[in-house]
Specification:
about 75% helix; Four Helix Bundle (Hemerythrin (Met), subunit A); about 280 residues
Length: about 280
């Protein structure tokens, strides 16, 4: 067989006849266990919310937030990141930070509104799913790691969770009047809209960088732990809503600086025009 015939046979060989790459089997156990625990917390929140035990259901979302922070951090520190872990974490987050807060909010405060409450809960779930899908795309393409584009789904889920946990002492069985349930719409719809918005929210991932920080940071962390330990209900509400409001404060400050810088540039440009020879002659 000549060299030309060998070349033709090699070119005409079907793609199916070529050796396939073997997929790696198995998963990294430690980060996957943390993600599984995150999913369990979301499931437990749904179960307790359907049983009407709202004071027990709401803290499970807080536990899920902590586990969600740990699984990705541990995977990066131990070098056990994988495509499976990324997809598994996103699916778990849809349950813990999408479905669980929506059902908790509906069972506690949206049920008197009927179909309107159903719709509001579904919008929250849909917004959380779209937020996580967009986050995966933005992470693969890179970007500014100091900020999130849109409200992170764990922070959005913390809004209804902290609110229900704080209000469960006064309304342990949930709301029964539709007039009392109307403010719950804002509690659900505002985080849902912010999740799919383009407003930038500060990321705390840079705090874990090897850069040295002032000692006052530890003081603030210790004060936060003390407040959560002594007054958990109100401390968590203040923390959740403060993070929500921080994006609007940062947006207002950036616009104010932009306007101030533009005004200073216009004044400087006017002074240059006034000092030009042509303007002096005209005067």
């Amino acid at each position: 067989m000549t060299e030309i015939q060998r070349t033709r046979l090699r070119f005409l060989r079907r793609a199916a006849d070529q050796p396939r790459r073997r997929l790696r089997r198995g998963v990294y156990l430690l980060p996957s266990l943390l993600t599984m625990a995150n999913m369990f917390c979301g499931y437990a929140c749904v179960v307790y919310a359907m049983r009407g035990e709202f004071e027990t259901a709401a803290p499970f979302i807080g536990f899920a937030v902590v586990l969600d922070m740990l699984d990705g951090r541990i995977a990066r520190l131990t070098g056990t990141t994988s495509a499976f872990g990324v997809e598994f974490d996103s699916l778990a987050d849809v349950i813990s930070f999408g479905m669980a807060p929506a059902i908790l909010s509906f069972q506690w405060g949206l049920s008197p509104l009927g179909r309107l409450g159903w719709a509001a809960g579904f919008l929250f779930v849909a917004a959380a799913a779209m937020r996580l899908a967009r986050f995966n795309i933005q992470t693969s393409t890179g970007g500014d790691k100091r900020y999130f584009v849109g409200m992170p789904s764990p922070a959005a889920a913390a809004i209804p969770a902290a609110t229900v946990f704080a209000a469960a002492t006064r309304y342990p069985a949930g709301l029964s009047d539709y007039r009392e349930a109307l403010p719950v719409l804002a509690m659900v719809l505002v985080p849902a809209v912010l999740m799919v918005s383009t407003i930038r929210f500060r990321s705390f991932k840079t705090l874990a960088s090897p850069t040295r920080r002032p000692y006052t940071v530890l003081i603030f962390v210790a004060a936060g732990i003390m407040l959560i330990a002594t007054h958990p209900r109100w401390a968590l509400v203040v923390m959740a809503y403060s993070y929500l409001a921080s994006a609007f404060v940062g947006l207002a400050v950036s616009r104010f600086r932009h306007r101030g810088g533009r005004g200073a540039a216009e004044i400087e440009h006017q002074n240059v025009d006034d000092a030009s020879p042509r303007s002096t002659v005209a005067k």
